[in-house]
Amino acid sequence: MTDIDLDFSALRATFINCTLKRSPEPTHTGGLVDVSAAIMRKHGVEVETIRAIDHDIATGVYTDMREHGWATDAWPEIHERVMASDVLVLAGPIWLGDNSSVMKQVIERLYGGSGDLNERGQYAYYGRAAGCLITGNEDGIKHCAMNVLYSLQHLGYTIPPQADAGWIGEAGPGPSYLDPGSGGPENDFTNRNTTFMTWNLMHVARMLKRNDGIPAHGNQRSAWDAGARFDHENPEYR
User: Which among 79, 31, 75 is positioned nearest to 53, based on CA atoms?
Assistant: First the structure.
């Protein structure tokens, strides 16, 4: 038993599955997403899963690519759902030792909002927690996770400890996570890391929400642009 408050019903989480498979085809990445999402739902978190490839997301680095020559772009509506969430988890497969093309596209589109500011003049992604899930049948979990988590913190997300998890079988070709006999769903290392990631995301997201995000001093782009320097002193060059 624990005396820690386990009610996380004030939180909302969005998982973006960056598989290359369109619905309704099953996705191994989705199987691991379900494990994390189930823990969150058990403790009251409102969870939404978006399979990016099912949507007509334009290529580019602006929030709305319809303003930059594209006839259609599903990203603005997805971005609204991301911005309404306290937790973002990017999940995807490994291809050629790296993140999928869809994962890279989603990160590029998130980057399109990196210059937006919140009402306190901070970058708009401040005050939210993020993590990642990786699946595959070839090496590369840590490489993929490094890329995703670096990108998310650079945009302004808070990355908890142990904010990534994944599963790989033997170096491919071989079974993937949900394939019969793969051992994926039973793998203790994967299950432990997925569980720790999920709880750390919920803990950090709730701390941020209860404390109204990151304190707004020393990190306000609007104030810097207006001339504030927050105790920064330029070195005297000789």
Answer: 75
Which residues are CB-neighbours of 154 under 8 A, at least 6 positions away?
Answer: 114
- Per residue in 90-121, pLDDT tens? 999 999 899 999 999 999 999 999 999 999 99
Q: Cβ neighbours of residue 127 under 8 Å, at least 6 residues apart?
A: 118, 158, 208, 209, 212, 213, 214
pLDDT band at 4 (very low <50, low <70, confident <90, very high): confident
| Strand, coil or helix: 142 | helix
Nearest of 178, 151, 45 to residue 90 by alpha carbon: 151
CA distance 137 to 94: 8
Q: Six-digit token pair at 182?
A: 């793969």
Helix (H) or strand (E) holding 36: helix 28-42
What pLDDT does 235 receive?
A: 67
